[in-house]
Amino acid sequence: MMKLKYISLNDRLYRYLSACRTHADDPVLDALRRETEAMGDISRMQISREQGSFMTLLVAAVGAKSAIEVGTFTGYSSICIARGLPAQGRLLCIDASAEWTAIARRYWIRAGVQNKIELRLGAAIPLLKNLERRAVFHFAFIDAAKEEYGAYYELILPRLRRNGVILFDNMLWGGRLGTGRIRQAGGRAIDELNRKLARDKRVESVLLPIADGLQLCRKL
């Protein structure tokens, strides 16, 4: 049997790959990361540096002009998405926390992307259900309540253009998937969605081992 081809990361190798990317030193994002990390354990919700760089590149590569993000937190991912959009591009951010997104608003200004972003506060599912009838998106990033990922997917997919992309975060659930013994509701929801996406004839998908797992889907 051919040996499985993958590399296990350690801290040394992770630091190397994180450094070997365009704009590895970013004063605005680095300042935002430090402020978020000072919040304590909740800062684990912040995406990794290489995730952010990947999203900026991906948004620009697919030529996205409109994007939606479900789960903004303190704004790291939204800045990365907005940077990949053209000057007239627009990003709609949905989040339930006025406190966390107040930090995001400050850093949008520092990053010079505030004019590209609209923030809507509240529960994600009702906000998605009440989107404008003609709203169409080219790129979507989902990083909010894991138990609701499936609902977000079904609400966003009809509004995604053909060849549009949806990116889901935390799709490896801390490496606990694949054992068949998932007790947490969030983990079960993610496992079910991963399996559903692999069979869903509306999309083409691949699960990538970036940070805690990114599920990348293209609408057919």
List the helices and strands and how they pair.
Elements lengths: L10 H9 L7 H11 L11 H13 L4 E5 L5 H9 L5 E6 L2 H14 L5 E5 L2 H6 L7 E6 L6 H8 L3 E9 L16 H15 L3 E6 L5 E6 L1
Parallel strand pairs: 1-2, 1-4, 2-3, 4-5
Antiparallel strand pairs: 5-7, 6-7
Using brief descriptors, characterize the structure shown.
7 strands, 39% helix, single chain, 220 residues, Rossmann fold, alpha/beta, 7-stranded mixed beta sheet
* Strand runs, count: 7
Per CATH, the architecture is: 3-Layer(aba) Sandwich
What is the CATH class designation? Alpha Beta
In total, the number of domains comes to: 1
User: What do the pLDDT scores average to?
Assistant: 96
Silhouette: globular
CATH homology superfamily name: Vaccinia Virus protein VP39
Strand-and-helix sequence, N→C? HHHEHEHEHEHEHEE
Query: How many H/I helices?
Result: 8
Report the sheet with the most strands, covering strand number, pairing sense and barrel closure: 7 strands, mixed
Please report the distance between the alpha carbons of the first and last residues.
34 Å
> What value does the Rg take, in angstroms?
17 Å
